[in-house]
Structures are given as C-alpha cells and as structure tokens.
Specification:
Order of helices and strands: EHEHEHHEEEHEHEHEHHE
CATH class of one domain: Alpha Beta
Low-confidence stretches: 207-216
Distance between the termini: 37 Å
Helix content: 40-55%
Mean pLDDT: 87
Strand order of the largest sheet: 4-3-1-7-8-9
Number of helices: 9
Number of strands: 10
Largest sheet: 6 strands, parallel
Radius of gyration: 17 Å
Shape: globular
Length: 216
Amino acid sequence: MLGYLSVGVFIDGGYYAKVNRALKATESSIIRVRSLFDFISRKIALDEGVDPANCQIVEAHYFRGRFRVKDAYDKHLLYNERKFEDTLIENDVIFHYKHLREMEKDGVVQVVEKGIDVWFALEAYELACFRKFDYIVLITGDADHEMLVRKLKALKIKTVLLTWNLNDVDATSPLLREEAGHHWELSELVARNPHLKRDLLYKLRDSALTPLGDIF
C-alpha cells in the first residue's frame, strides 16, 4: 500500500466525443469533467486503501483533431470549441490538437484525422517515464493503444482503461481490454449505482437547442 498516489489521465478526444454524443441522445446529458476526475481519484484511493486526499490527478491531457479557424467558423463550431476548452482549462486539462483535413473520395467528403493516436501514445509513454505516475488512466476504446498499455505495464505503472460503451459508441477493443490491468466500464458501474450516474452527468437544459455535445 502506498501513502501517496499520483495519477495521470489521458483522454482520447474522438472517443470522448462519441460518448458525449450518445449520452446527449439517450440522457440529454454530457459528462461533467470535474465529477469524472473526482470519481477516478476516489476509486483508486479506495482500491489502494489510502485517504482520497492523498490520491491526486497530477496531470490530465486531451488529444483531438480540429478544423482550422476558417473552417470551424464556416461550420459554426467556434463557440462549441471554445466552450469545451473553457471546461478543460477550468479542470487543468492540457489539450493537444492537430488540424483535421477534408478529402473527397468517390464524391463523398471525408474528415481525415492523422497522427493523433500516435501522439497520444508517445506523449503518454514519455510523461510516464519522466513523471513516474503511480497510475495512468486511459479514456479510450481504440485497439491502436494496446501496445501503449503493454509498455506502461513494463514500466510497472498500474494502468486503468476507462470506457463507457453506449449504443452508438464503438465497443471497446477486446485486445485493449485484455491487455489493460484494470478495466472500468462505466455503463456497468452506473447501472449498479444510480447515484454515480447523477454525479457524472451534467443535464442539458434543452438538448434540442443546446449545441454542446454535438461536437464534443
């Protein structure tokens, strides 16, 4: 048992956005970042038998592709982006962005996000080496992060995979789930504890009129 626990949180923004979109559609709600972080700290403290005050998220990072400013303005996304960034800033989350590109294929315009998964993995591994976290929490369901989990475990860092599988969110990769030392599936946890669900979600006043959640 450790006396003090430092936790690093790494958020796959694309995955997080899918969860929020699904929650908005089914619950008229989105995730409350501060409540999510509090839950992470409390659960790790409980699992390790330490005072919650001695279990702290010392760094949190968010990775996502986003449009250049003109494209975001033309698509009416700037307000959503800034409002969500305000939430990240208020919770001391460091955000990492790469520009999205639009490519036309067979007459269909597709949004291309390049390099985010690699950046996510490299940053998580590098910071794990330097910061010596006791725990790392990965919020993602992407199979591409299987090797990242394996490398983090080789550093003897306890690694938690945190997911929330909903109807229109891609299921968590079985390979990633098997590789992770700990897997917290929030859909199962909130089903057993309705109070947790209320704590984690921010109820939108009018989901039909509130744009936040469509993008984030």
